[in-house]
Model the fold of this input.
Amino acid sequence: MQFVYNVILVLHFVGLAALLGGFAAQMKSPDKHVTKVMYHGTLLQLITGALMVVFAEAGWVDETINHSVVGTKLLILIVILVIAVWSRKKPAPQVKAWAAVGILTLINICIAVFAGAAS
Ligand code: HEM
Done:
């Protein structure tokens, strides 16, 4: 089960790359907006993060979840998701939505790394 958990963690990083990569790639674009790749990265973060919590809570892997860290990351991710869905049908540029998603993603990375989601 540890192998499957690690695969899910890799996918968690893929989602992170999609979010942050989608943000960074538009740094110089005049049409900054929340792209489909960023939106799908958000969904991947949510699914893989939730799955890792399930694996740890079920005792399938030897990981202890830090609930306050995961809860905070989940709240921030929900905000990202709301912004992504809200700005999806709107015409570019959507600079505020693009910037908010990038900054919130960076905050979530800092929370994950400095506070630790699991140990
Ligand atoms: C934009 C949103 C998110 C970002 C940028 C993010 C980023 C990260 C990063 C960088 C790590 C690796 C840190 C480490 O292992 O020391 C990590 C691990 C983890 N994340 Fe997230 N995360 C996000 C959302 C979520 C959500 C919503 C959940 C739960 C519902 C979640 C659950 C976890 C768990 C359980 C781990 C621990 C993996 C392990 O160390 O075994 N994450 N996340």
Q: What stands out?
A: The chain has a mean pLDDT of 95. The helical segments are 2-24, 36-57, 67-88, 95-115. DSSP finds four helices and no strands in the chain.
